[in-house]
Design a protein that fits this description.
about 850 residues; elongated; Rossmann fold; TIM Barrel; 3 domains; Deoxyribonuclease I, Chain A; eight-stranded parallel beta sheet
């Protein structure tokens, strides 16, 4: 239940009756009057308390926690607020503050009650909900992909809508301030602390999208937005959590690079700005970090930029602000520099009493404290916090994580995925079922998205520091495709000190199997691996980003993201591996199919010995969705074994199979099966229907054959994204008799004519003729020859063009609804590894669903 203004003030009156806060103060008064009345009645202790924003441990206001007792001397979050008259609280996951929306909302109401009871002033409750890599409130709250992903979309509209939704959801659970957006310009690819939190390395793009985010948070979402980290943390090579970064920008460089986003934020009405614990000698030669710098905070931010909102420090527990001064001195110098709010001092009691003592001794005037308190109280009144400090628990589920909000987050993620390279022409994947190894950093979300599309996902989560055992396990995993995700793999100083992510990726690439490399955080990772033929960047590992990645992989959407930063080479940072703005795309309306034809013959290689494992390995290497096989002997061995070889191959490869015999090798024998020879089909798609059609042939078992109908023209019907695909596989006349081929073409056309016009047709097989042979002309009227359409295909001794003009062995032909994207004969393999003395032909096809 949301308490009314009258109930709020009545509670304050009952609690602080006879103290400094008047029960008759009306929150309906003008901001100036309300602030004036409150300040006139506040004690110095209450004023100083308003300057502090601290954390407290516990999921409810009344939860006793020994960590609070150790840090504050009192047990519960409510007691912490009351003891120090806090102006604000910040929520973290590790403080047990953000379990779920209902818990957060109840905690917020409980803390507001404690604050109003103590001082009559509501709390400013904040958190770092930048989205992407910095998130405090997880699902079911809507998860957006973060700053650099927004930069990849180039869309101010998306930036504003993300801010609006985030703001509304935070406000619904009682969080009144978001310490976002990040306004830093990440011009240093080795920046260990900003990276993808930044929108871009381009100041203009950062400025445009930061201004849009501010409007989304504040005007639409009705929460306080905090631009950070002033005067600009984008060119640091040191993490200010652990050291003090020094920015070497000249004044001119700072004005050109770092300043524009903060100027844009101020013009957009930003209500709060967070300082950076960085030293910028060009702005202040004293060596003091910006948080403690009067020339930067007062001289530039207040006077030059005319910002009169609330200035808050970054955490005072960070080493970047503690290197030069003690914890009692830091808050004093921050206030003297122009800071209004002190965030998370290491020793809250020490810091609080240090400020009180400084005012009592005259070092800091009470007027200076009043200046900051006035800004803080004005902000609380102007944002409606004074009139409405409590949230309505019944409305939380109606606002947080709604389907509409999720849809918008997905729409933004869909436009951020960036395709850097696809030299292997893997994308888009066909919709056929396949086994995909998903490994690297946090692969679960992507695996879920791939499984929903019919893939069998094998998940190997190796984290940011894979062990050698996990690397070996991933490399040994058998799959049709591997997708490896990386997170700051470039960072061998902190994240991955032994470069194990780099080792994992390189080991997977070295297998020669199809591998897709995806940095799910910093795009700079790609410069630290061996060249990966297929590479994308998502800038985020959130569920929407992984769903967007799956959509791109399967061609459901085209990749439209453009790099918001330049990716330099590892060897020479002055050289661009990928320039700013790079991003490939493809026609998302095309559904891709890979079809192969392979005459596996009665022998294998030149040793003339069939080897099931060798054949399976050769077929797997084709990575095709559909494979037509000729000269298939389904037994291949002595009569006593009677192995169904095609079924065995299908089982090894995880494919569906069909077989159409042409004739039996063996004469009839009572109680004995007959050894069969014919054509076969292996398919990733389930087979809806199969049929063995008859076609004119010359019998190989007749010493004086005459043309006659005979079986061996296999048809398999598949469903591909709602379209019926008819795949025909045949072993045509190997005797190179033109008259027989003419009859076979006529038979083929009759069979094809039985299909519906809107159905897709593919014919695979082999025959001994050139594509230009006149008896084949009717076939090409109906179908397109993949070699001819591809134009650049090279053959070999057992493929067309061959040594003998009539030695055309394997072909893939397609109907008018299909387009040939590429056709080739894979590279030769050593004879000992060859599955056949023929070579396969493989074609990438596409159709529009």
């Amino acid at each position: 239940m949301e308490l009314t203004r009258r109930q709020t003030l009545g509670l304050a009156a009952a609690t602080v009756a006879g103290s400094t806060v008047a029960a008759t103060t009306s929150a309906d008064a003008t901001p100036d009057r309300w602030v004036r009345d409150m300040m006139r009645r506040m004690t110095l202790e209450q004023k100083v308390g308003q300057l502090f924003v601290c954390y407290a441990y516990g999921p409810t206001a009344g939860t006793a926690d020994a960590r609070n007792t150790s840090l504050y001397g009192v047990a519960t979050p409510a007691e912490v607020v009351a003891k120090f008259n806090l102006g604000g609280i910040i929520y973290f996951t590790w403080t047990d503050s953000t379990k779920d929306p209902q818990q957060i909302a109840r905690l917020s109401n409980g803390l507001q009650e404690a604050s109003i009871a103590a001082t009559g002033i509501p709390l400013q409750i904040g958190t770092d909900q930048e989205h992407g890599s910095v998130v405090r409130v997880g699902p079911p709250a809507t998860q957006f992909p973060g700053g650099m992903a927004l930069g990849a979309t180039r869309s101010a509209a998306y930036a504003r809508s993300a801010g609006a939704i985030a703001g509304r959801e935070l406000k619904a659970i009682g969080i009144t301030t978001d310490f976002a957006p990040d306004a830093d310009v990440n011009v240093n690819p080795l920046n260990p602390v900003i990276g993808v939190r930044s929108i871009s390395s381009d100041p203009t793009l950062v400025a445009e999208l930061v201004a849009a985010q501010v409007k989304g948070y504040q005007r639409d979402g009705r929460v306080v937005s905090t631009a950070k980290h002033f005067p600009g943390h984008g060119d640091t090579a040191t993490d200010s959590h652990t050291g003090i970064p020094v920015i070497g920008h000249t004044r001119e460089e700072w004005t050109r690079i770092d300043l524009p986003p903060f100027q844009a934020a101020i013009r957009a009405g930003i209500q709060s700005i967070m300082t950076a614990h960085i030293v910028v000698p060009a702005l202040d030669p004293s060596g003091d970090p910006a948080t403690l710098s009067g020339p930067i905070l007062t001289g530039i931010l207040r006077e030059q930029l005319e910002f009169d909102g609330v200035v808050i420090t970054d955490s005072l527990g960070m080493q970047g602000v503690r290197d030069k001064y003690g914890d009692a001195e830091i808050p004093l110098r921050a206030i003297e520099a122009g800071v209004d709010q002190l965030l998370m001092p290491v020793d809250p009691g020490l810091a609080y009493n240090s400020v009180l003592d400084a005012v009592r001794s005259g070092r800091i005037s009470e007027a200076r404290i009043d200046e900051s308190v006035r800004r803080i109280l004005t902000l609380k009144h102007e944002t409606g916090l004074v009139d409405h400090p409590y949230v309505d628990l019944a409305r939380v589920a109606k606002i947080v994580g709604t389907p509409a909000n999720y849809a918008e987050a997905q729409r933004i993620a869909d436009h951020s995925t960036t395709l850097l390279r696809d030299d292997a022409a893997l994308l888009p994947l066909s919709p056929a079922p396949r086994t995909i190894l998903v490994t690297g950093y946090s692969p679960a979300n992507l695996a879920t998205a791939l499984q929903s599309r019919g893939a069998t996902a094998v998940v190997k989560d190796t984290g940011t520091t894979p062990t050698d055992a996990k690397i070996a396990d991933a490399v040994a995993t058998v799959a049709d495709l591997t997708v490896v995700l990386t997170n700051k793999a470039w960072d061998t100083e902190v994240t991955d000190k032994q470069a194990k992510q780099q080792k994992l990726v390189n080991a997977l690439l070295a297998t020669g199997r199809p591998v897709i490399v995806v940095p799910v955080r910093d795009p700079y990772d790609v410069a630290y691996f061996d060249p990966a033929p297929t590479t994308l960047v998502t800038y985020s590992s959130t569920a929407p980003s992984m769903e967007a990645l799956a959509k791109v992989l399967y061609g459901e959407i085209a990749p439209t993201g453009k790099l918001p930063v330049e990716i330099p080479t590892k060897a020479d940072p002055t050289q661009a591996m990928y320039p700013f703005g790079h991003g490939l795309t493809f026609d998302a309306q095309q559904t891709r199919l890979t079809v192969a034809s392979y005459n596996i013959h009665a022998g294998a290689g030149e040793d003339n010995v069939f080897d099931l494992d060798r054949t399976a390995a050769a077929l797997k290497a084709l990575d095709a969705d559909v494979i037509g096989l000729q000269e298939v002997d389904v037994h291949w061995d002595a009569r006593s074994q009677w192995l169904d070889t095609l079924a065995e191959l299908a089982t090894k490869l995880g494919l569906h199979s069909a077989f159409a015999p042409i004739y039996d090798f063996d004469p009839p024998a009572a109680g004995q099966p007959r050894r069969q020879y014919g054509v076969g089909l292996l398919s990733r798609f389930p087979l809806i229907r199969t049929e063995n059609h008859s076609i004119t042939r010359l019998s190989t078992q007749d010493p004086n054959p005459v043309p006659a109908p005979a079986p061996g023209f296999l048809e398999a019907e598949l469903d591909v994204r709602g379209r019926r695909l008819h795949v025909y596989c045949t072993h045509l006349d190997y005797r190179a008799d033109p008259s027989v081929r003419q009859l076979q073409v006529a038979d083929t056309l009759k069979i094809l004519a039985q299909d519906r016009k809107k159905d897709l047709q593919v014919l695979v097989g082999d025959f001994n003729a050139e594509a230009s042979a006149p008896e084949l002309a009717g076939l090409w009227t109906r179908l397109t020859d993949a070699w001819t359409a591809a134009g650049s295909t090279t053959g070999g001794p057992y493929t067309y063009p061959a040594v003998a003009a009539t030695k055309r062995i394997d072909f893939v032909t397609v109907g008018t609804s299909l387009k040939v994207l590429r056709a080739e004969v894979p590279a030769e393999v050593p004879v000992a590894e060859a599955a056949s003395d023929h070579r396969p032909m493989i074609a990438d096809l596409a159709f529009r669903p």
